[in-house]
Amino acid sequence: MTPRPLRADAARNRDKLLAAAVQVFGERGLDAPLEEIARRAGVSIGTLYNHFPARETFFDAIFPERLAALDRVAEAALEDPDPWNGFASFLEGLFALQSQDHALNDALALRFPVSPEVREACHRGFQHADRIIERAKESGRLRADFKPQDLSTVIWAMSQVIRESMDVAPEAWRRCLAFFLDGLRAEAAHPIEVPPMTETQLATMMRRRR
Predict the structure, then answer these.
(1) Second CATH level (architecture) for the domain 63-209
(2) What's the first-to-final CA gap in the chain, in angstroms?
(3) pLDDT digit string (tens) for 22-63?
(4) Which residues lie across from 209 on neighbouring strands?
(5) CA dist list (Å): 116 to 91, 119, 184, 185
(6) How far apart are CA 163 and CA 172, in angstroms?
(7) Domain 1-53 classified CATH 1.10.10.60?
(8) Which residue, 131, 155, 127, is CA-closest to 78?
(9) Phi, psi angle pair for 3, to nearest 5°
(10) What are the residue boundaries of the structural domains of the chain, listed by start?
(11) Which end of the chain has fewer CB atoms at under 10 Å, N or C?
(12) Quick check: 146 and 69 in contact, CB under 8 A?
């Protein structure tokens, strides 16, 4: 059945709640109190639950636009004629977006369950990342043993740096990224005894984080 359109006042309340959710989650992360969102929107908590009966319904409404920004970062990286610069700019763009938005940082670190639609958008981003990584490896600039699974662990680690330092040293992640990139240059590589995680191990960790 086609849902009935909202009354004008109800539509305004929903818009105010979405705007407040973007602000509050962006400032405080996905575990921010829903009461704070209602307060900033100027509505009651009952009105909030009428429009968004679960915290996750907010995520479905606000994340598609944010994940689209990740697509644009990846597309620009793939268009860069220098594969290493494309790889480095992809990571810098990714972490810059995370540093500007606690909600996106939490989502990419899988700190909260998300809908299948949001998971699909994240999966699309990792498909872009696979191509970016392969281009950089084929150029001879990125060490050959770096795998997409390694990128996942780097994102989780960097998300924690961003989460803990955002309020006191918002640029600290850039120093961490510089060290990380230097360690990934092919000329700096040395054999690593521990293999990357398997797809099964990675999937198990992701399920646990959700």
Answers:
(1) Orthogonal Bundle (1.10)
(2) 32
(3) 999 988 888 899 999 999 999 999 999 999 998 888 888 888
(4) none
(5) 24, 5, 32, 35
(6) 11
(7) yes
(8) 131
(9) -65, 145
(10) 1-53, 63-209
(11) N
(12) no
Query: Alpha helices, DSSP H only, in 29-147?
Result: 34-41, 45-51, 55-79, 83-100, 102-108, 116-138
How far is CA 86 from its chain centroid?
A: 18
Is the dihedral angle over the CA atoms 64, 69, 72, 73 positive or is it negative?
Answer: negative
Q: Is 176 exposed, middle or buried (0-12, 13-18, 19+ CB in 10 A)?
A: middle
Residue with tokens 């639950």: 49
Tokens of 146: 């770096």
Handedness of CA 21, 26, 30, 36 (dihedral sign): negative
172 vs 208: CA distance, rounded Å: 28
Output the 3-class SS for 136-153.
HHHCCCECCCCCHHHHHH
* Residue range 133-188, pLDDT digits in tens: 999 999 999 999 999 889 988 988 898 899 888 888 889 999 999 999 998 998 87
Q: 142 - beta bridge partners?
A: 185
Task: Give CA–CA dist 64/75, Å, rounded.
Answer: 16
Compute the distance between CA of residue 98 and CA of residue 199 in angstroms, rounded to an integer. 24
Cα–Cα distance measured from residue 5 to residue 14, given in angstroms and rounded to the nearest whole number: 12
Contact predicate 109/209, CB 8 Å: yes
